[in-house]
Specification:
Helix content is about 50%, strand content about 10%. It is an alpha/beta fold and about 400 residues long. The chain folds into 2 domains: about 170 residues, Rossmann fold; about 200 residues, Dehydroquinate synthase-like - alpha domain (Dehydroquinate synthase-like, alpha domain), CATH 1.20.1090.10. Strands 1-9-6-4-2-3 form a 6-stranded parallel sheet, with helices on both faces. Pfam families: ADH_Fe_C, Fe-ADH.
């Protein structure tokens, strides 16, 4: 890596992780080993309908726990819902939290933990928080392969009064343990497999090209990109392929580790803004202009974008200009994203005018602070136009 001998950097692996088929059946035992007796179990009603939640609940009960359930999780969890769950947690005097599900369940759990000993509303704590009072031990059990939230130190919450998404970044958002069981992702519908898979892809490519990247995040991101490129199309076509599910959930966790260390940038700024404006699922919103975003990064991050091309199996000439490198990456990413049926803005029924009009709001997103170089609303609008019907 160019300049690595002059680099001063730091990185961490925050969350101990157990991974493997059937590992979720250790949940109750692990809670007991932490000295916990009364966990709050957080999930959405869909997980109960497919039987996953009941298996985890019974496993925890069998370990002798008194349980409290919150099963009202919604996508892009709104602050008022998080505050409702936190009120239940405090009233019931729970001593631990188990979140089962996708990013929304884990974000809800993190928000609850922030409010266990810090006065609501949660919007008071948006941003980086280093001095919050600690919460309770948390165990996160993902059932999708996308957010990587089980190993991150942040939660994304919808602020209903402002009509946007914001995040809390704090050690209080860290799990004490992640349990990564690919069995829980078997049979995940193709559309959800695709949407969560491209979310993990966005985490990986943005963490590789942003201003906070480091040797550890780069290694994790490259492995995640290679794995997603190979196994996401297989998992999309055959939801019962356990090998594909194992690879995808590991890639998601690696991508989560990468972006916890290196953070994400413009792609997620666009995704957050489009998602809030048009109620687009998070993974799809982040994927819409991702190829254009990585093309933009090639101007200053040509070596990193070459790495992305290599991981995607796209050939780049040794003497290629940064424009050619960026173009190759854009096309390779677009091919992968389209191969798993991710819709564009036109497919979603959003007018080009409405989509372009959000560009100024994107420039206000905090993620732009670590974008490779400054970008204007006009340039972002051009990216949205390029991606609109791609």
């Amino acid at each position: 890596m160019k300049g690595v001998d002059r680099m001063i950097t730091s990185y961490e692996i925050f969350v101990p992780t157990i991974m493997g088929s059937g590992s979720s059946l250790r949940t109750g035992m692990k809670l007991r080993s932490f000295g916990c007796k009364k966990p709050l179990i957080i999930f959405d009603k869909g997980l109960k309908d497919v039987g996953i939640a009941d298996v985890i609940v019974e496993n925890i009960k069998s370990a002798g726990m008194e349980i409290v359930i919150f099963d009202k999780v919604l996508p892009d969890p709104p602050d008022i819902l998080v505050e409702e769950a936190a009120e239940i947690a405090r009233t019931e005097n729970i001593d631990s939290i188990v979140a089962v599900g996708g990013g929304s369940s884990m974000d809800t759990a993190k928000g609850v933990n922030v409010l266990m000993n810090n006065k609501p509303p949660i919007m008071n704590y948006f941003g980086v928080q280093k001095n919050l009072l600690p919460g309770v031990p948390m165990i996160f059990i993902p059932t999708t392969s996308g957010t990587g939230s089980e190993v991150t130190n942040m939660c994304v919450i919808t602020c209903t009064s402002r009509g946007n998404k914001d995040s809390v970044v704090s050690p209080v958002c860290l799990a004490k343990l992640a349990i990564v069981d690919p069995d829980l992702t078997l049979g995940l519908p193709p559309k959800l497999t695709a949407a969560t898979g491209v979310d993990a892809l966005a985490h990986a490519v943005e963490s590789l090209t942003g201003g906070q990247s480091n040797p550890l995040s780069d290694a994790l991101a490259r492995d995640a990109i290679r794995t997603i490129a190979k196994w996401l199309p297989i998992a999309y076509k055959d939801g019962s392929n356990l090998e594909a599910r194992e690879h995808m959930i590991l890639a998601s966790t690696f991508a989560g580790m990468a972006f916890t260390n290196a953070l994400v940038h413009l792609g997620h700024s666009i995704g957050h803004t489009l998602g809030a404006a048009f109620h687009i699922p998070h993974g799809i919103a982040c994927a819409i202009a991702l190829p254009e975003v990585i093309e933009y990064t090639a101007k200053t991050e040509s070596d990193k974008v070459r790495m992305i091309c290599e991981c995607l199996g796209a050939d780049v000439e040794d003497n290629a200009t940064y424009e050619e490198v960026g173009s190759t990456a854009r096309e390779a990413l677009r091919k992968l994203i389209k191969s798993v049926g991710i819709p564009n803005l036109k497919d979603l029924g959003i007018s080009l005018e409405d989509a372009v009009n959000v560009a100024p709001k994107i420039t206000a997103d905090a993620g732009l602070a670590i974008a490779p170089y400054r970008i204007t609303a006009k340039r972002i609008a051009e990216m949205i136009k390029s991606a609109y019907d791609a």
